[in-house]
């Protein structure tokens, strides 16, 4: 089994920054694609950022230039999401996923709340 634990969410004012962390553990035997998704109330879960095993990165258009996904240099099972210039519309529960890009399949964390006040 694989477990993912997110941390780093919280309440921040618009224009502020947060850094999310996701640590995966369990039966993981290689470098896996991982990503961050978010779900706001009443909306579908959407991709925020994804990094492949070869470190190719994809961002949602809404976060390009503001968010940065990265993988820990020493622990390939840990990924981060640096979020700068946060906007109220970034408010959502942020989920970490281990697996291919897309909102289904793979392994998911429990989510961490990010709230951006105006």
How many H/I helices?
A: 0
The topology string of helices and strands comes to EEEEEEEEEEE
Coarse morphology: globular
- The overall pLDDT, averaged over residues, is 95
Briefly note the structural class of the backbone: mainly beta
Distance between the termini: 40 Å
Strand content: over 45%
- The helical percent reads under 10%
Unreliable stretches: none
Radius of gyration: 13 Å
Sketch the major β-sheet.
7 strands, mixed
What is the strand tally? 11
Short note summarizing the structure:
The protein is mainly β and 118 residues long.
Explain what the structure shows:
The chain has no helices and eleven strands. The chain has 118 residues and is mostly beta strands. Strands 2, 4, 5, 6, 9, 10 and 11 form a seven-stranded mixed sheet that branches. The protein has a four-stranded antiparallel sheet with strand order 1-3-8-7, with no helix packed on it. A hairpin with an 8-residue loop joins strand 9 (92-98) and strand 10 (107-108). It is globular and about 45 Å long.
Helix/strand layout:
Elements: E1 2-7, E2 10-13, E3 18-26, E4 34-39, E5 46-51, E6 57-59, E7 67-71, E8 78-83, E9 92-98, E10 107-108, E11 112-117
Parallel strand pairs: 2-11
Antiparallel strand pairs: 1-3, 3-8, 4-5, 4-9, 5-6, 7-8, 9-10, 9-11
């Amino acid at each position: 089994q694989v477990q993912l634990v997110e941390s780093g969410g919280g309440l921040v004012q618009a224009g502020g920054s947060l850094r999310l962390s996701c640590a995966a553990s369990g039966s993981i035997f290689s470098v896996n694609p991982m990503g961050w998704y978010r779900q706001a109330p009443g909306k579908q879960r959407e991709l925020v950022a994804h990094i492949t095993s070869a470190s190719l990165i994809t961002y949602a258009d809404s976060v390009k230039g503001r968010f940065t996904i990265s993988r820990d240099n020493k622990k390939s099972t840990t990924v981060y999401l640096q979020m700068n210039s946060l906007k109220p519309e970034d408010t959502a529960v942020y989920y970490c996923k281990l697996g291919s890009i897309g909102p289904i399949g793979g392994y998911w964390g429990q989510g961490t709340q990010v709230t951006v006040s105006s």
